[in-house]
Amino acid sequence: MGKPASFSTKDRILGAAEELFAQHGFAGTSLRQVTSHADVNIAAVNYHFGSKENLVNEVFRRRMDEMTAARLGQLEQARSSQPGDLRAVLAAFVEPALALAQDRQSGGAFVRVIARAYAEKNDNLRKFLSDHYGHVLREFGKAIGACVPGLSKEELYWRLDFLAGALTYAMADFGLIKRPHNISEAAHRSKAAQELIHFAEAGFRANARTPDSSLT
Amino acid sequence: MGKPASFSTKDRILGAAEELFAQHGFAGTSLRQVTSHADVNIAAVNYHFGSKENLVNEVFRRRMDEMTAARLGQLEQARSSQPGDLRAVLAAFVEPALALAQDRQSGGAFVRVIARAYAEKNDNLRKFLSDHYGHVLREFGKAIGACVPGLSKEELYWRLDFLAGALTYAMADFGLIKRPHNISEAAHRSKAAQELIHFAEAGFRANARTPDSSLT
DNA sequence: GTCTATACGTGGATAGAC
DNA sequence: GTCTATCCACGTATAGAC
């Protein structure tokens, strides 16, 4: 499956959708705009994707898979070359995410899909995210736990959620901090990553509030 | 302006909208549903609010103002009765937000408005949020800075953004952590607040990466 | 299998009568 | 201020051409 023919209708729809979603959001982009940009018929979108919602999810999944691979790869490298280094583990979690979020082509759309799961009561999307994103989180949970002994699993998961939240916020570029005009996007992103890693490192190293393990 | 007459059309629309938005999201709630519940004519919503988007913002603003007042009140109390206590300042920031997010009536709708600003390219809403929410953040920035001397303003604001992100995530109940069936919502929320405060406290106390002040 | 033309129902919004 | 009637864009479904 998947003919290697030049650029299929399906691919053209995905490309146009990603670009338009990133620029104008989901509600702000009609399927008629998408099919017009992709130069295909309006009905093609429902033929290939079933619904607008499904199209959104497919646009997202492509990039999500890339990011997951980048994260797990960087994590593996950190584990083998810098075992026990919490900062390296956190970097593997944070850096690929911020890199993707900043991508001019896909970044905007990517961040918005996650936010959409908040914004609308969309349990399907939520479940999809937790099924896949959850696995990555648990992998990082193990790695972090190995760097910070004496932290209960419950504490660890609470703090992972806080990190994920702070990261999502940073990906959406939503806070008070704005990039100064005289520094590049890449430099700003690098700074954000370093600051977040530093902040989270201290957070993870804070004493456990619910010690469930021995004091050996 | 604002006749104290029993319950105006406008109020009934606001009430019905808040309930339905919280239950079914924004896209999942039509104005016809809202006006039907409020027992007013479909055109009334556009007469009183101009657009659906504006109605959403008004629903949000009511609760946002409540939360802001609660936060600033609790902050003032912390400053006077426990000066220099970082945990008390963080509690003033975190607790009113989680309390509101959990409110069965308004909580769902409230969290979703914030998420909507991520999810859709809505610069008006974004600006509105930064104008108001930004002021509160800066106030808390001052208070936190007073508790953690030696932190540059830039560091402080980065970390405030991280806290706000983690808090938003927690408000949306979005992470791995799920409330166990045998503990109440109130207890779970209280636990979330304590965990987040503990995590953030350590984060704020981490050494500054860009020391711009003396080492006195 | 793929794609097109076309139609349906619902949504938010508006103009104008009362 | 409020309501009725109406408009137009939207997502979606279907029938049939290639």
From TrEMBL, chains A, B:
Residue ranges constituting the HTH tetR-type domain according to the UniProt record: 7-67
Residues annotated as transmembrane: none
UniProtKB keywords: DNA-binding
DNA-binding region coordinates: 30-49
Leader sequence residues: none
Gene3D superfamilies found in the cross-reference section: Tetracycline Repressor, domain 2
Keyword DNA-binding: yes
Annotated Pfam families: TetR_C_30 (PF17939), TetR_N (PF00440)
Top-level taxonomic group: Bacteria
Matches recorded under InterPro entries: DNA-bd_HTH_TetR-type_CS, Homeodomain-like_sf, HTH-type_TetR-like_transc_reg, HTH_TetR, PsrA_TetR_C, Tet_transcr_reg_TetR-rel_C_sf
Protein name: TetR family transcriptional regulator
